[in-house]
């Protein structure tokens, strides 16, 4: 499963990074006052970030490691 990251924005949510798996929406990364948070799915839940980190590159690597797996 290939994960890709794409800068995106909507009127109500501001700018965020959309996470795509095999070209389909999988989740999003939001910047919450200096801490990047990854949420699976299309809606963020209070306290429900699947992963978070202050460093965006490190967070992307953690997402790849956890969800990127190899095709079987």
How would you describe this protein?
- By secondary structure, this protein is an alpha+beta fold.
- The protein has one helix at 56-67, and strands at residues 3-10, 14-21, 24-32, 35-40, 51-53.
- The chain has one domain.
- A five-stranded antiparallel sheet has the order 1-2-3-4-5, covered by helices on one side.
- The termini are close together.
Q: Concise description?
A:
The chain is α+β, with helices and mostly antiparallel strands. It has one domain.
Which key phrases capture this entry?
72 residues, alpha+beta, five-stranded antiparallel sheet, 1 helix, 17% helix, 47% strand
**What's the shape?**
globular
Major β-sheet strand ordering: 1-2-3-4-5
The residue-averaged pLDDT reads: 84
User: How many structural domains?
Assistant: 1
Give the SSE string: EEEEEH
Structural class determined from secondary elements = alpha+beta
Q: How much is the radius of gyration in Å?
A: 12 Å
Indicate the low-confidence ranges by residue numbers: none
Number of helices: 1
What fraction of the residues are assigned to beta strands by DSSP?
A: over 45%
Helical amount among residues, as a percent range?
Answer: 10-25%
**Total number of beta strands:** 5
Main β-sheet: number of strands, strand sense, barrel status?
5 strands, antiparallel
Q: Whole-Å distance between the termini? A: 9 Å
Reconstruct the topology from this structure:
Elements: E1 3-10, E2 14-21, E3 24-32, E4 35-40, E5 51-53, H1 56-67
